[in-house]
Amino acid sequence: MATLENRFSWSKSRHEKFEACLRQYYYQYYGSWGGWERDAPPEVRELYILKKLTNRHAWSGTAVHDAIRRILTLLRDGAEIDPERIVATVRASMRAQFRESREGAYRFRKAFGLREHEYAEEVSAEEWRASWELVESCLRAFFRSRWVDLARSLPREAWLPIDELGSFLYRGVPVFAAPDFAFRAGGGVVLVDWKTGKAREADRDQLLGYALYARATWDVPLERIQGRVVYLPELDEVEVVVDDASVADFERRMQDSIDRMRALLVDSERNLARIEDFPRTETSATCLHCAFRRPCLQQDGSAP
């Protein structure tokens, strides 16, 4: 079997890790590469295990996104949806994931893992309960939103892939995107992104990235693309203006991000990196919430 090539690419999440901490970025995209192989060195395998961990806040967001994707799929296929059954199913799934993580199953097989369990972080029962309560409130808000009836009314040919990871080439660099909900309307495309956290400027950039993906993948001119960010559970909607000026500004910032990432590589053509070129952040709060903090401290000779 051919060895997988670690090709350079760009995404919003990759950019955010690069901005947060260069060492974390290195571990995520270079140090952990190949950790899935049976004969991977122990230190690489360890980084790969840590890379796959999530935290309770991201866990809630993923649970909401996965559930909405399943709901939209049912609506697209003309099936009836039972809100109570869906909420109960998501809750049961999260409980099973919690047990799996608490038992450390992710260290022995492909299983769900939480950073809080790996590092024995003190999390109260109320805080764990809040993770589920956020999921439930977001799902119940979605069920009463206008998007359910809108999705149900769409003809099959109007549907575009639901939360499916895709990519397009930007000046030779693969750029990854996965619109949560996309459909054709009025001769154009509507792009919708669900959020379970507070509004950030990066949310707007994410939609602009989706617009570039829509133009490249579905051959839709920018002026016919509409962007919406929906903040759950409040159902606050923010329209993202997609036009030549906003997209050009996003492209400039994306290119700057790509250039800075590549500038740190020892060989940009082969996408090779050295750990010494990616120093740790000096922001202690970032370290506190990093899945790689144990190997990072050990690498620098600090106490684990």
Question: Could you explain how this protein is built, in words?
Answer:
- A 4-stranded mixed beta sheet has the order 3-4-5-6.
- It contains 12 helices and 6 strands.
- Helix 4 runs parallel beside helix 7 and helix 5 (about 85-100) packs antiparallel against helix 7.
- The protein has about 300 residues and is of the alpha+beta class.
- About 50% of the residues lie in helices and about 10% in strands.
- A hairpin with a 4-residue loop joins strand 5 (about 225-230) and strand 6 (about 235-240).
- It has 2 domains: about 10-150 and about 280-300, no CATH class; about 155-260, 3-Layer(aba) Sandwich (Trna Endonuclease, Chain: A, domain 1), CATH 3.40.1350.
- The chain has helices spanning about 10-20, 20-30, 40-50, 55-75, 85-100, 115-120, 125-145, 145-155, 200-220, 245-265, 285-290, 295-300; strands at about 165-170, 175, 180-185, 190-195, 225-230, 235-240.
- The model has no long low-confidence stretch (mean pLDDT about 95).
- The longest helix is centred in the N-terminal third of the chain and has 21 residues, at about 55-75.
Could you name the key traits of this structure?
single chain, 304 residues, alpha+beta, Trna Endonuclease, Chain: A, domain 1, 2 domains, four-stranded mixed beta sheet, two-stranded antiparallel ribbon, 12 helices, 50% helix, 12% strand, globular
C-alpha-based Rg, rounded: 21 Å
The spatial strand order of the largest sheet comes to 3-4-5-6
Distance N terminus to C terminus?
37 Å
Largest sheet: 4 strands, mixed
User: DSSP strand (E) fraction?
Assistant: 5-15%
Q: Give the tally of β-strands.
A: 6
Overall average pLDDT = 96
Helix/strand structural class: alpha+beta
The unreliable regions are none
Tally of structural domains: 2
Helical residue percent band = 40-55%
* Tally of individual helices: 12
Shape: globular
Order of helices and strands: HHHHHHHHEEEEHEEHHH
